[in-house]
């Protein structure tokens, strides 16, 4: 089977949920003998130095790969103008005529069975692809985008921000539903996202395809774990992550810095704004920014905090944390789509009191944390192993090809 995967960002290095999912999909398909191509937009216009591709050369060498630099920046003038524009500039800023031309040439040179669009930002190219290819078009939803924006709006107290986010949610929903109905089939990570799409009367068939991990990469080493310690790992250019961690820091700042929660808290990830440095407290709260090795960082800490208040899709970082046998405290929204059992393989906290209670319990009972983490690993092994997930994906492709 020949598969072309289209992404709105370069999925290297694998330092976040999106690139992890994309690369594991490619690895799984290659392992089963399929022919895979990857065409990626590059909004950051990286030079792709050696360290950018570290750990990915084995993958790149086995696929037909091209990246294309694109500028998605928006001026203040354009931002104001877009308030009066009915179209979802949110996604259309990823459209570039040069990349479209490259894509059309590729489709003239090669024929594909499956062309998979990874998320809403790459859908502006569906016109060109459907016109120049007879392949089946698959949409993989990493989030139901309009739902994320709606949940953000609900959380806001500021009337102006609430109005703006509701406006964006409405426009994105209109665009998103229109685009999704143009595909032959849709893959989602969670039953919740499937139900949301069905409630929106999406026409193409929607299948649940879980996040897949190569379990051999996840090797916990308890000799290097700091206990007790709390940590958060996530990209803060994604609004739900930023909103969630700000709420957590604001809520527990005094408890962590001078109160009864006698534990160090580490915040790591990409694109952490400079103002987050104000939360640092020597020996108590560490704002680390981007880490060189995400799994090494995760292994070195004991209790993972996922304070998401608005979200969608599946949080790959939780699945990775489970694979590394971490004790995870998450909101129910953050853990959405994972077949967890509260108190057995994860701890669910939906308000400040519940977070406080679970943190107090965890930082004083190492064996309790280990048991939660070990049970989490068992859950991931049974439902998220890359070989199991890829077999489901291929069966999904074959069904679409025969319909």
TrEMBL record:
N-terminal signal peptide: none
Give one Pfam family, short name only.
Glyco_trans_1_4
Entries under Gene3D superfamilies matching the protein = Glycogen Phosphorylase B (3.40.50.2000)
| Domain Glycosyltransferase subfamily 4-like N-terminal intervals | 16-216
Q: Name one GO molecular function term.
A: glycosyltransferase activity
Q: Give the highest taxon in the source lineage.
A: Bacteria
Q: Which InterPro entries match?
A: Glyco_trans_4-like_N (IPR028098)
Q: What sections of the protein cross the membrane? A: none
Q: What is this protein called?
A: Glycosyltransferase
* The species this protein was found in: Mucilaginibacter agri
């Amino acid at each position: 089977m020949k598969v072309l995967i289209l992404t709105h960002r370069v999925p290297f290095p694998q330092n976040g949920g999106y690139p992890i999912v994309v690369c594991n999909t490619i690895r799984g398909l290659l392992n089963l003998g399929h022919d895979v191509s990857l065409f990626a937009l590059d909004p950051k216009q990286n030079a792709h130095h050696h360290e950018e591709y570290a750990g990915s050369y084995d993958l790149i060498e086995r696929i037909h790969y091209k990246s294309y630099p694109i500028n998605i920046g928006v001026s203040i003038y354009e931002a104001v103008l877009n308030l009066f524009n009915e179209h979802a500039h949110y996604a259309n800023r990823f459209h570039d005529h040069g990349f479209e031309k490259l894509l059309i040439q590729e489709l003239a040179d090669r024929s594909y069975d499956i062309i998979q669009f990874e998320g809403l930002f790459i859908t502006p190219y569906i016109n060109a692809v459907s016109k120049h290819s007879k392949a089946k078009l698959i949409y993989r939803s990493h989030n139901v985008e309009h739902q994320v924006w709606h949940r953000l709006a609900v959380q806001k107290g500021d009337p102006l921000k609430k109005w703006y986010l509701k406006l964006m949610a409405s426009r994105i929903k209109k665009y998103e539903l229109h685009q999704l109905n143009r595909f032959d089939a849709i893959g989602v990570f969670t039953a919740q996202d499937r139900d949301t799409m069905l409630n929106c009367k999406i026409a193409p068939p929607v299948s649940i395809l879980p996040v897949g991990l190569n379990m051999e990469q996840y090797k916990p080493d308890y000799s290097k774990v700091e206990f007790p310690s709390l940590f958060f790992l996530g990209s803060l250019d994604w609004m739900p992550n930023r909103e969630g961690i700000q709420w957590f820091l604001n809520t527990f700042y005094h408890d962590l810095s001078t109160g009864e929660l006698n534990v160090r808290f580490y915040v790591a990830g990409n694109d952490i704004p400079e103002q987050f440095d104000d939360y640092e407290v020597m020996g108590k709260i560490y704002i680390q920014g981007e880490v060189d090795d995400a799994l090494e960082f995760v292994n070195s800490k004991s209790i993972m905090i996922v304070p998401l208040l608005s979200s969608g899709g599946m949080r790959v970082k939780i699945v990775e944390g489970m694979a590394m046998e971490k004790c995870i405290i998450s909101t129910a929204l953050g853990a959405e789509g994972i077949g967890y059992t509260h108190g057995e393989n994860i701890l669910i906290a939906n308000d400040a009191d519940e977070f406080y209670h679970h943190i107090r319990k965890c930082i004083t009972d190492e064996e309790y944390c280990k048991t939660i983490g070990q049970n989490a690993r068992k859950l991931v092994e049974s439902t998220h192993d890359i070989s199991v997930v890829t077999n489901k994906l291929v069966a999904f492709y074959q069904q679409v090809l025969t319909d």
